[in-house]
Design brief:
- The strands form two sheets. Strands 1, 2, 3, 4, 5, 6, 7, 8, 9, 10, 11, 12 and 13 form a 13-stranded antiparallel sheet that branches.
- The protein folds into two domains: 4-245, Beta Barrel (YmcC-like fold), CATH 2.40.360; 266-458, no CATH class.
- The chain has helices at residues 25-31, 137-142, 208-211, 355-360, 384-389, and strands at residues 4-5, 46-53, 57-71, 74-80, 94-102, 105-113, 150-151, 159-164, 170-184, 187-202, 213-220, 224-232, 237-245, 266-273, 277-291, 294-303, 306-317, 320-332, 376-378, 392-405, 408-420, 429-436, 440-448, 453-458.
- The chain is built from five helices and 24 strands.
- The N and C termini lie far apart (53 Å).
- A hairpin with a 2-residue loop joins strand 17 and strand 18 (320-332).
- The protein is mainly beta.
């Protein structure tokens, strides 16, 4: 198979704002860890798989994989079928797959390998110089799902779209179905795995029906994929299983999603301030678009003294949920104190007019990628956030508390932030936010330095 590098993908214009986001240092360090990963890259790592195809390769083929190189967060896995005791009728092949861990998740950047046997369908528009194949375990893994192969953070409700193939002519829609206990030869007693289901579509190739279908992959933290099932649209069935490995399963990060941002998601909030907004403002937020786990959330007013419309852009990455941009138009009968920083002209300073303004005020991330009790993060004076807000402070995950609001009763993650904006009491204070699993923000209380208190409550 010819070597191919990943191509640039064209995305909606709002995604250009991704260039403004930077992962916290702790997240960057995590990308370099060769062991604590969904696909490790430790120096001595080896995997042996067996796979079959019910139509084109019914004899079991064994492939042995090992790490052949690593540079920072990038690494290469090489495989061969030589010396694996394969019988007549099995597939003879060798090759490599290049991966890189990014804040978006694990991506495939390159691959090369033996051409598929002539009995396999041709997965290109032309039979000549075709660089596509699913005749191998990692070829099955990355088919239609190269960027990302697996997203981070991997949280309940995570879904994403991706492209693949030599010409990015294979598309997929993917969803995380939760944790599942699976038995394979390498772990006969069973092991906990993350289950990913993908609907893969290829259009324009000679073998489109074979290039399309539904694939399920079971991932074990600290090991990698341990089982793959691919039901092709032409009726063929591919199965792969991990036979042996020298890696040990590790406890997976928590998959609770405290701030889901999925297309179609909707929330209605009421908020007021004890001094400056005594009549509550009722506002609706809707997730309008999601690409590569970056979401545009639209806001509109329902009732109250603030008339507002606009959008927020959030990126969910391994480093956390980051507010990339805010664009709003408003008219308010309420008069709020001024905010800083003094370094910006008045027209460019932020306003606190919506629950999301209060939630994102100060610095990123809004939430870490995998929040745990006791975790804390601070503002940085060298960041874009400090230029925009001029706020210093520290945020901490306090714990899980029971909270009651109009939308219901929740066991919610409590996050407390100490914020300081010199010279501006309204921009200084203590913010406490509660995030419910699968729901998002349900309550927020901001005790401002001017003595006023802003209270946000989720209605539905």
């Amino acid at each position: 198979m010819d070597s191919h590098t990943i191509r640039r993908l064209v995305a909606p214009a709002f995604l250009c704002l991704l260039l403004l986001a930077a992962a916290p240092a702790s997240a960057a360090d995590r990308l370099l860890d060769p062991i604590n990963q969904w696909l490790p890259s430790s120096d001595d790592a080896t995997w042996t798989y067996a796979w079959t195809d019910s139509t084109y390769a019914p004899a079991k083929t064994r492939e042995q994989y090992s790490l052949s190189g690593r540079d920072g967060s990038s690494f290469r896995l090489a495989w061969t079928t030589d010396g694996q005791g394969n019988e007549d009728g099995s597939i003879s092949s060798s090759g490599s797959a290049d991966y890189r861990r990014t804040d978006l998740g694990l991506i495939n950047t390159n691959w090369n390998g033996t051409q598929p046997p002539p009995q396999f369908p041709i997965l290109c528009a032309s039979a000549t110089q075709c660089g596509n194949s699913v005749a191998g375990v990692h070829f099955m893994l990355i088919w239609g799902t190269r960027s990302p192969v697996l997203p981070e953070p991997l949280l309940t409700g995570t879904s994403w779209s991706a492209l693949g193939g030599a010409s990015n002519d294979v598309s997929s829609t993917n969803r995380y179905l939760g944790r599942d206990r699976v038995r394979v030869a390498a772990f006969p007693e069973g092991v906990e795995a993350a289950k990913i289901e993908s609907d893969v579509t290829q259009a324009g190739a000679i073998g489109d029906p074979y290039g399309s279908g539904q694939r399920t992959v079971w991932w074990v933290y600290g090991v990698g994929p341990v089982k793959i099932g691919f039901r092709h649209a032409d009726g063929s069935v591919q199965d792969a299983e991990l036979l042996t490995t020298n890696l040990k399963p590790l406890p997976a990060p928590p998959d609770t999603n405290y701030l889901p941002l999925n297309t179609g998601g909707r929330a209605v909030f009421s908020w007021r301030n004890s001094k400056h907004l005594k009549t509550p403002s009722k506002q609706q937020f809707s997730v309008a678009q999601v690409v590569n786990n970056t979401a545009r959330v639209d806001v509109k007013s329902i009732s109250g003294p603030i008339k507002i419309a606009g959008s927020y852009v959030f990126a969910t990455r391994a480093g956390g949920v980051t507010n990339l941009a805010t664009t709003t138009r408003s008219a308010s009968k309420a008069k709020f104190p001024r905010l800083g920083p003094r370094s910006l002209p008045t027209a460019r300073r932020r306003h606190l007019l919506t629950p999301f303004d209060l939630m994102t005020y100060g610095y990123n991330p809004v939430l870490p990628g995998y929040p745990v009790v006791g975790q804390s993060w601070t503002s940085s004076k060298s960041s874009r956030d400090y230029t925009a807000f001029g706020v210093t402070g520290t945020s901490k995950v306090v714990g899980v508390k029971t909270i009651r609001v109009r939308a219901g009763r929740f066991r919610a993650l409590m996050v407390q932030s100490k914020l300081r904006q010199p010279g501006f009491p309204f921009g200084t204070g203590t913010r406490t936010s509660w995030f419910a699993p699968g729901k998002g923000l349900v309550k927020l209380v901001f005790r401002h330095g001017d003595g006023s208190v802003s209270t946000v409550e989720r209605l539905r």
